[in-house]
Amino acid sequence: MFEFLARSLEASTIFTLAALGELVGQRSGILNVGVEGVMLFGATLGFIAAQVTGSFLIGFLVGILIGGLLGLLHGFFSITLGGDQVVSGMGIWIFGFGLTTYIGNPFTGPLGMGRIPKLWGVSPFFYLSIMLIVLTRFVLTRTSLGLKIRSVGENPAVAEVSGVNVTKIRYLCVTVSGMLMGFAGAVYSLDYNPVWNYNFLMGWGFIALALVFFSMWNPLILLGGSLLFGALWQLSLNPQLVLPGVLSRYVWRMAPFAITVVVLMLMSTRWFRRRWGAAKPEALARPYAKE
Amino acid sequence: MRIGPYAVKLRKRTALAGWQAAIISVLAIVVALALFSLIFILAGVNPLVAYREIFSYAFVNRFGLPLTINRFIFLLLCTCAFILPFRAGLWNIGMAGQLYVGALSAFAVLLAFGAKASRSMELNPTLVIPLMVLAAALGSAALGAVAGFLKGRFDVNEIVVTMMLNFIAYWLVARMIKEGGIFMNPGGRGESFEMPPSVYAPFIAGTPFTIILALGVAALLYLLLAKTRLGYEIRAYGKSPAAARYAGVSPVKIPFVVFVIGGALAGWAGYHYFAAVPGVYKISRNYGYFGDLAFYGIICGLISQGNPLAAIPVALLFGGLSIGGRFIQGQFNMSFGVDYALLGVLMITLVAFQFFYRYQLVLSPVLSPACPEPRRRVEGPSKGSCGQKPGRS
Question: Between chains, do A81 and B337 touch, taking CB under 8 Å as contact?
């Protein structure tokens, strides 16, 4: 049982990091639906780099770097070129999915390095993810940078006339956002489950995207959501640990996705929207061109 | 920006003629293939040789061509399943899930006729085949309806929902064909029972009859969008849901209708691959591969700019490229997944080229500056604009 709880916390770490990245981007008004693609890139290239060099540190750095580059690419398409953010995000996802399948294939199999030591029974990245949540919450609500980010996400035209450089803030957020997603992928492939396989994420990134909608763009609620989904996901992977012999394991694999759809539906009801609807960044997914 | 004696400017397009869109699309494909040649070079293969092999295997070779045509039918149906919601401004990325459910529904008909017990069973093809086609459409339309209903009624993000449904359908198929599921092959092997040969899809001129289905769907979809009231409503909703609402277009009906029809078309793609392609005739163990291929439908739909007729040549080209990619992967001992890599490179190039559908580059010769800009004159106050002699009034 303790094993299960520890694994759940480790699973939630990956959701937290990826969803936190998405949240930072969305608070500045940039929607990136390609979370899964960025994570796949971070995971695959981080895995390859770690295996080739024999160093975890280099693996994580490569994962973060490629995530940041993909974030910049998304920023270039959606900020500089002013294109449709959904098209660009889909592009990054399919790009990641297609190219990592090809690049990673010769490295199929286990990483073949020791496991990263645990801290009080849980992966150290879990504690790191909590610290990042607190830090993001602090920056967003208590600093002038956070105010700028939020104003750019709510109304870029007003932010611009009050002296905020919208382009700069959005590029910053989108890059940090990509770095966190790439890091989440690297945590998956180097710590959580250090085995490379074709399209191994199977929906982690999309659940992370949905978690941001659940969180009402609040990092603390996001943490709660990812803890819940971490446990649920872990249960769906190993139902026999908790409920042996109840339902087929394939039915368990469906559960997180089905629950996501139901929660999204409940959140979209009129009752819910009237109460909490204002949390959504007003300028989300709208391209902004300086007049 | 300047290039030689010309100034380059960006101008927002007000309208995009069909031929201009076609040129941009062709250019995007050419650039993507040029970029992709980097992957060949890195793998130590001469890209020119590689492309020659790809095209000659896919479109000339007598083993490759039938594969290309079957892939083309599949891709065209997936593309149409993407295009209809796309014209309404909605993203159906659930073709994978819809085609799994379509295939399951078609095989459920066989199950109902007791075909699981014995492959040599004689079923009446004129009854069973239309029933299978119908069941495939209904099953996957039901899955599409979930996304359409949630979008229309509650405004739930359809990208997340269709993707979630993809995973649900993926594991549903696994539940049905593996570990004691009701569709399981009696011999185990993690695949479904095999179809009786008596209900194999009939052939027309050497290809499964689904080619007529696919081409008919593309033509009908074109007519639907261009000539009917529903098509007009779909396009209006796609341009601006709010404005369409003032014009009396129901914001609940349109998402529902496009996802139901789109889902049904993806279901036929599932029927085609698992029940009509020679050599398959079962839900194979690698069914996830066909779900992945369905994402080519997104690219085809974007490149053809949502035009179902333009999707026909695009789907044929990409069908050939994906078949040829797999072929040379074996031919040159390249790593697995050349067709996946091609998918990725095509997609990202296309995203970059979206820019040119909205903007055009204008070249204009730079004239010798007739009017030096900061006019610093001392002789008298002047408000005259360039070209006018100051102080004439």
Answer: no
**DSSP E strand boundaries for chain A:** 109-110, 195-196
A60/chain B closest Cα distance in angstroms: 24
DSSP-assigned letter for residue A122: B
What distance lies between CA B90 and its chain's CA centroid?
A: 14
Residue among B39, B164, B336 minimizing CB distance to A257: B164
| Chain A, chain B: beta-carbon pairs less than 8 Å apart | 138
Look up residue B203 and give its DSSP letter.
Answer: E
Query: DSSP code of A78?
Result: I
Distance, in Å, from the CA atom of A166 to the CA atom of B368, rounded to the nearest integer, reads 37
Q: For A218-272, how does the pLDDT look when each residue is reduced to its tens digit (9 = 90+)?
A: 999 999 999 999 999 998 888 877 777 777 888 888 999 999 999 989 888 888 7
CB-hemisphere CA count at 13 Å for B291?
29
Domain spans, chain A: 2-112+119-279
Please report, as a single letter, which amino acid is at residue A71: G
Token pair, residue A16, equals: 């937290």
CA angle at A110 for the pair A109 and A116, rounded to the nearest 5°: 160
Nearest to B293 by CA among B49, B67, B25, B23: B67
Cα atoms in the Cβ-side hemisphere of radius 13 Å centred on B326: 12
- Report the distance separating Cα B58 and Cα B79, nearest Å: 20
A234: its two tokens: 């872990």
Contact B176, B192 (CB under 8 A): yes
Looking at the complex, report in whole angstroms how far the Cα of residue B359 sits from the nearest Cα belonging to chain A.
Answer: 10
Nearest to A187 by CA among A282, A99, A123: A123
Domain B14-360 adopts which CATH fold? Answer: ABC transporter involved in vitamin B12 uptake, BtuC (1.10.3470)
* Digit-coded pLDDT (tens) for A186-220: 999 999 999 998 888 888 999 999 999 888 899 99
Q: Quick one: A2-112+119-279 is in which CATH superfamily?
A: ABC transporter involved in vitamin B12 uptake, BtuC (1.10.3470.10)
b/e B369-392 (16+ beta carbons within 10 angstroms → b): eeeeeeeeeeeeeeeeeeeeeeee
Closest Cβ opposite residue A248 in set B157, B175, B298:
B175
